[in-house]
Amino acid sequence: MIPLSITLRQALERLVLPILIVAALGIILLGQADRSLTERVRMGLADILAPAYGLVVWPQEQARDLLGRMRDMGRIEAENQRLRAENANLRHWYDVAAALADENAALKANLHWMPDPSPSFVTGRVVRDTSGLYARSVLVAANVDAGIHKDEIVLDGSGLVGRVTEIGSRSVRVLLLTDASSRIPVRLEVSHGAAIMAGDNSGTPRLIYYPQDNPPVEGERVVTNGEIDTMPAGLPVGQIHYVRPGQPVVIPFASLGHLDIVRVFDYGRSAVVPPDAPGRIPVRRPADSFSLPFPSPLGRG
Amino acid sequence: MTPDQAPEFQPGIQPRPSLWRRLDMLSRRGLPAALTGMAVLLLSAPFDLPGQAELLPGILLSSVFFWSVFRPASMSSPIVFLLGMLVDLLGFGPPGVMLLVVLLVHGVALSGRYGFSRAHILVLWLVFDGVSLAATALQWGLISALSLHLVPMIAFAFQWVLGVGVFPLLCVVFSTLGRSIANPDRV
């Protein structure tokens, strides 16, 4: 160590804190200027910690599982009765569904129906709820190499969960539909209105921009609209509920508070390219910059 | 609390500083920062505890304030910087905000430590209440400014109240630790 005089050393020590405060201000500015850098560093740290968080989650799940099983044992008789009744009911609906499926197949065969491409999906476990005071998101440990891309759709067993926003090498961050920055175009199934579901960090996202002459009906199902490239129409989202008159919210089907296993769907964003609108002037590419000064005799389009 | 001074200023016969002695001293001196870092990691883990996210700033500020007042050698500015970075990287807010807040709290505690360390614990608590209120207000202001909309204040009020409530408990734990296993003079 270089021998320094005591006064000089004290002066240097006094300089450390102001320098660090300036560095903190610099980090704030850097974080505002380059968000992707912050995302990368955070995902790096999350990747390192994901196995440890998995270890923390595992015993909790086991305990919850055990508790649930013990509770189930207590009411096994009533459950049995209920299941018997439900089974009888479902048997009827099974016949109805089978008949409808046959009819549907016949109708589609008559109409030369083109089937929708079936999406590929990756299943992962939610390892950490990264919701802070002002964001709602979760970290999903999944095999990213299996082909998870940004903006893909995440569903759990019962409905839409959110969208993938950041990708690491072993985990992805999912922005829940309850986050304040989440806006999802939805369709209402009974009133047939279109609306935007806007998250506000509470458990129930608000519904905005719905048609004023055709208000949402209490209890009706909300499904996705299909107006975003990555999101097909008809995914179940939730149910309308009026908190007070004139203020409809959506109660999500997915249990966003206790997410466990979710699926990340790839609906093939680049697979569908929207056709050019008829009559639109084609964008001039650099290659054909020397076009003829007079209209081509062959015409266009 | 014993003052944490360099050995050359302490009178009396000192044993030879062997490797083990030095390691022991280092671990005792590093214990407060290590415990705080551990608390940050644990509170970011998915335990589904109510108020877990709001408790983290309270515990961090309490720990930084307490150790900066009573033993700045164990909570030096670079260590505070690293702790702040850790919290910011584990969180989801605008980066650098918690880092700046925690450094400022550390600076306030350092500049007033000769008065604070002699004060009664209740007076120290009141001082901490004021400092953490200012820190929380600064955090709220910065986050609102950086995200360009007013974030709800109620969560930050809850965070401040939790910090105020947890400070005396942590004081008891820390001063016990500071006298026993985190004391470099008891090597």
UniProtKB/TrEMBL annotation, chain A:
<comment type="function">
    <text>Involved in formation and maintenance of cell shape.</text>
</comment>
<feature type="domain" description="Rod shape-determining protein MreC beta-barrel core">
    <location>
        <begin position="126"/>
        <end position="265"/>
    </location>
</feature>
<feature type="transmembrane region" description="Helical">
    <location>
        <begin position="15"/>
        <end position="33"/>
    </location>
</feature>
<keyword id="KW-1133">Transmembrane helix</keyword>
<dbReference type="InterPro" id="IPR042177">
    <property type="entry name" value="Cell/Rod_1"/>
</dbReference>
<dbReference type="InterPro" id="IPR007221">
    <property type="entry name" value="MreC"/>
</dbReference>
<comment type="similarity">
    <text>Belongs to the MreC family.</text>
</comment>
<keyword id="KW-0812">Transmembrane</keyword>
<dbReference type="GO" id="GO:0005886">
    <property type="term" value="C:plasma membrane"/>
</dbReference>
<keyword id="KW-0133">Cell shape</keyword>
<dbReference type="InterPro" id="IPR055342">
    <property type="entry name" value="MreC_beta-barrel_core"/>
</dbReference>
<dbReference type="GO" id="GO:0008360">
    <property type="term" value="P:regulation of cell shape"/>
</dbReference>
<dbReference type="Pfam" id="PF04085">
    <property type="entry name" value="MreC"/>
</dbReference>
<dbReference type="InterPro" id="IPR042175">
    <property type="entry name" value="Cell/Rod_MreC_2"/>
</dbReference>
<protein>
    <recommendedName>
        <fullName>Cell shape-determining protein MreC</fullName>
    </recommendedName>
</protein>
<keyword id="KW-0472">Membrane</keyword>
TrEMBL record, chain B:
<keyword id="KW-0472">Membrane</keyword>
<feature type="transmembrane region" description="Helical">
    <location>
        <begin position="154"/>
        <end position="177"/>
    </location>
</feature>
<feature type="transmembrane region" description="Helical">
    <location>
        <begin position="79"/>
        <end position="109"/>
    </location>
</feature>
<feature type="transmembrane region" description="Helical">
    <location>
        <begin position="121"/>
        <end position="142"/>
    </location>
</feature>
<protein>
    <recommendedName>
        <fullName>Rod shape-determining protein MreD</fullName>
    </recommendedName>
</protein>
<keyword id="KW-0812">Transmembrane</keyword>
<feature type="transmembrane region" description="Helical">
    <location>
        <begin position="26"/>
        <end position="43"/>
    </location>
</feature>
<keyword id="KW-1133">Transmembrane helix</keyword>
